[in-house]
Amino acid sequence: MATNIEIKARVADPERIRERVKALSDSAGERFVQEDTFFNVPQGRLKLRLLAPDHGQLIYYQRPDQAGPKRSDYLIATTQEPQTLKAALAAALGVRGQVNKERWLYWIGQTRVHLDQVEGLGAFMELEVVLKAEDDLVQGQAIAQSIMNDLDLQRSDLIEGAYIDLLER
Fold first, then answer.
1. 151 and 143 Cβ atoms separated by less than 8 Å
2. What is the separation, in whole angstroms, between the first and last Cα of the chain?
3. Beta carbons of 125 and 115 less than 8 angstroms apart
4. Full domain range(s) for residue 96
5. Residue 10 is inside which H or E element, if any?
6. For residue range 38-49, what is the model confidence (pLDDT) as tens digits?
7. Which residue in 10, 101, 127 sits closest to 47, CA to CA?
8. Among 2, 85, 1, CA closest to 51
9. To which H or E segment does residue 4 belong?
10. C or N terminus of the chain, fewer CB within 10 Å?
11. 50 and 90 in contact (C-beta within 8 Å)?
C-alpha cells in the first residue's frame, strides 16, 4: 500500500486559503467534480470515485480518526466501467453513503492540496504529503505541519474523520 500523511480542516474563508495555496503552489490548480460512493466494509473505508462516465477509481484506505497529521495507507484501482462496479459493490457490500464535491487540486512540493466544496457540509482543505521511499513518518508530519503553518491553519480547524462521517452525524 502507498502511504500519505494527511490532515483535513474546515475552511472559514475559502478565497483567502485559495490565494495562500496558489502563492505556495507548484501548480496552477486543476478542478474536478467528484462523486464518492462509500461501501460497508469491516475495517478502513472503501469508496468508488466517479470522475467521468467511463472513468472511476476504487479507493481503499485505512487511517486513524484523529485531528492532527496522521498516516493514511491506501490502494487505488482504476476502472472504465464505474457504474457496473458500483452496482456489483452495492449488491455485495451495501452502500454506506455518498459524498459529492467540487475539488481543486494543487501541489506544494510533494504535497497534494485539495480545496473542497462538499455538498451539505461546506468548504474544507486536505493536505496529503505523499511519502517517498526514503521518507519516514516524522518527516511527512513535519512537512504537513510546515504547510499548515504557512497557510495559518489552526489545530481547532482540523477534523478527525472523513466527509462521510460528517454527513452521517
1. no
2. 30
3. yes
4. 2-168
5. strand 2-10
6. 999 999 999 999
7. 101
8. 85
9. strand 2-10
10. C
11. no
Q: Beta strands of 18-156 (E only): which ranges?
A: 30-39, 45-52, 55-62, 70-79, 95-108, 111-118, 122-130
Residue-wise pLDDT tens digits, 44-79: 999 999 999 999 999 999 999 988 899 999 999 999
Type of residue numbered 28: A
pTM of the model: 0.92
* Cα-trace Rg, the chain: 16
Q: How many domains does the chain have?
A: 1
CATH number at residue 155: 2.40.320.10
> Contact 97/167 with Cβ under 8 angstroms?
yes
What amino acid is encoded at 139 in this protein? Q
Instruction: State the DSSP H helix or E strand holding residue 144, giving kind and residue range, or none if neither.
Output: helix 137-150
Write down the residue that cell numbers 475559502 correspond to: 14
E strands, 91-143, in order: 95-108, 111-118, 122-130
Residue 97 CA, chain-centre distance (Å), reads 16
